[in-house]
Amino acid sequence: MKNFYVLFVLAIACPVALGVEKFCNEQDFENDDLMCCNSIVTPRPFGPKNQHKCCGNVSFRKDLQMCCNGVVTRPIIGRNADHRCCDNVGFDSRTHECCNGVVSLRPGGKKAAHKCCGNVAFNNKVRMCCNGAIVYRPQTGALWHHTCCGQQPFNIMTHICRKKTIYQRAPEPLKLKMKRVRLN
Fold first, then answer.
1. Angle, CA of 163, 165 and 166, to the nearest 5°
2. pLDDT band at 81, cuts 50/70/90?
């Protein structure tokens, strides 16, 4: 009973000692409903306190939202570790790609082959970016043999580019291979 009485007196006389009140920029506030974000007292979001975070001077729930460049994103259903920021927008990196600050639908194929052309994601194994245009790769040659001539793709082993025009390479003369033969 004596311990209860001491606790009761402490709660009335000194709420800071019990952690009920906190200070934010020399302003006291109740920790249950409010939190301190960037020295500004702000209302806590609903839900468990261990999910509350600050984004600049605004509070949010980290299990439902993200803080992207100081902006709280809209609620994300099924928020998980695959969610990323693209400028100030949250997105799921399993299904989308961030291309120059714009969220773009992820193309098919392996993630390692995904590249951006301007604001659009594409599969680099099948297509390529030629001066801002996504075009199909040439049918022949290894990927490193493909390059652009203006907005047209070509294979550097079979063609050349001059003044944004593609020309077929002249055939190389046949090279004869000589084989050393040992005479007895």
1. 130
2. confident
